[in-house]
Amino acid sequence: MLSKTHTKYIQSLQHKKFRDESGLFIAEGPKVVLDLLNSRNFICKEVFALNEWFDLNENIKSIHTGTLFVEVKDFELKKISALSTSHSVLAVFEKRKQDSGLKITNKLTLALDMVQDPGNLGTIIRIADWFGIENIICSEGCADMYNSKVVQSTMGSLGRVNIIYTDLEAWLQQNKKIRIYAASLEGVSIKSIGKLHEGIIIIGNEAHGISESVMQQVNEKMTIPKTGAAESLNAAVATGIILSHLV
Amino acid sequence: MLSKTHTKYIQSLQHKKFRDESGLFIAEGPKVVLDLLNSRNFICKEVFALNEWFDLNENIKSIHTGTLFVEVKDFELKKISALSTSHSVLAVFEKRKQDSGLKITNKLTLALDMVQDPGNLGTIIRIADWFGIENIICSEGCADMYNSKVVQSTMGSLGRVNIIYTDLEAWLQQNKKIRIYAASLEGVSIKSIGKLHEGIIIIGNEAHGISESVMQQVNEKMTIPKTGAAESLNAAVATGIILSHLV
């Protein structure tokens, strides 16, 4: 049985302010919760699940001894869920400390400039995980990686990709030795670039693209060849296409 | 000034049942509305817009003489909008008759098997428009192309891509002369297929992939090479990657 106070505190984690204050966030659904539980990057505080979930995950309590497991009823789960259709499990995790000693030589790194749509950010994290991209640098204007919609659309990849929020312009200036590529509506075709073993790839805002100050740091603009009429591609789709050609 | 009855009738178009009964649907936002107005494929019945939108589109009334233009206040637009942040314009269009004499030789055609997420369907329509794909065949279990979220995420491409809802299995059987490719987690790498001048590319459901009966019609399974750990890619992202390699 969930108390009113407990219910309210979990609901409050749907707001960035309370996530920042508490250092906690929510993940929902069997796949996302299990992937984060299995990841060594996140500490799980509490799991709220239906009886059926515990039946399917019998040994989970003995593996995660530091976690509080609470069996809840369907109506209780609905109350604390941020989803329109709640799944069988919801968990509260501790946010991760930002990695300060990031190594970006000899690998590809994604940099996101004001990617504001939570679904896009989550999908980009999932794409990075598919293509083995270890690090994503987010400008401070990007959506919060701990927003429920972001967590949900990563489909569990959140535990396998390192995400850093920073002043993107300053960060790029500090990393000038690495070649910087920009996803753009103009520039060289991604098909003519070939495989890249090292580089920073910048993806811009959904409506306005890459900001001017960030664009000034770029060494090469690249574009996805168009054969039809659409003005642009969704930011996550563009990221997927670019990585599929350069990785 | 919008009457209560008028407001209710526009709100009702957010439900498939009423869209089917009336043969009408809603589009919102300057880009989407103008793209559909400029498309010859849709007849516009009514446009509800703020004064500022009319200032920006002075000649619009003289071009679209069959359309009713209504200036509304911000609070009225909010009432009829399906978006959390309403834009400056909302329009009611007539649904399109399905094209019965589809030609799919000498071109690539997308076929969607139970793509249920409206955002994914809209994004796939936008991707098809980017790559010059003329036709998308949707199984009857796909999201409704006239759902507000679909219309919104096409970003205007709805007017430039031909979309047909049909019994996908039967349709594939009728088109056996065209080679059928399936997006799958196994199969040959999309990088080894090369450019395709003709073919049907099937994209499956977000959670369950391509259904068994549809898969039986497939000539070749193809996959996007993975170098990381994510289990799968978002359906729209996968579509974008596949088309970028095959078109």
CATH architecture classification name of the largest domain in chain A: 3-Layer(aba) Sandwich
Annotation field: number of helices of chain A: 11
CATH superfamily of the largest domain in chain A: SPOUT methyltransferase, trefoil knot domain
Spatial ordering of strands, largest sheet of chain A: 7-6-5-9-8-10
Listing every helix as H and every strand as E from the N terminus to the C terminus, the arrangement of chain A reads: HHEHEHHEHEEHEHEHEEHEH
Detailed description of the structure:
Two copies of one chain form a homodimer. The first copy, chain A, has 247 residues and is an alpha/beta fold. Chain A folds into two domains: 4-94, Ribosomal protein L30/S12 (60s Ribosomal Protein L30, Chain: A), CATH 3.30.1330.30; 108-246, SPOUT methyltransferase, trefoil knot domain (Alpha/beta knot), CATH 3.40.1280. The first copy, chain A, is built from eleven helices and ten strands. A six-stranded parallel β-sheet of chain A has the order 7-6-5-9-8-10. A four-stranded mixed β-sheet of chain A has the order 1-4-2-3. In chain A, strand 6 (135-139), helix 8 (148-153) and strand 7 form a beta-alpha-beta unit. The N and C termini of chain A lie far apart (49 Å).
Quick take:
The structure is a homodimer of 247-residue chains. The first copy, chain A, has 247 residues and is of the alpha/beta class.
Describe the secondary-structure layout.
Two copies of one chain form a homodimer.
Chain A: H1 4-12, H2 16-22, E1 24-28, H3 30-38, E2 44-49, H4 51-56, H5 60-63, E3 68-71, H6 74-80, E4 89-94, E5 108-112, H7 118-130, E6 135-139, H8 148-153, E7 162-166, H9 168-174, E8 180-189, E9 199-203, H10 212-215, E10 220-223, H11 235-246
Parallel strand pairs in A: 2-3, 5-6, 5-9, 6-7, 8-9, 8-10
Antiparallel strand pairs in A: 1-4, 2-4
Helix pairs in contact in A: 7-11
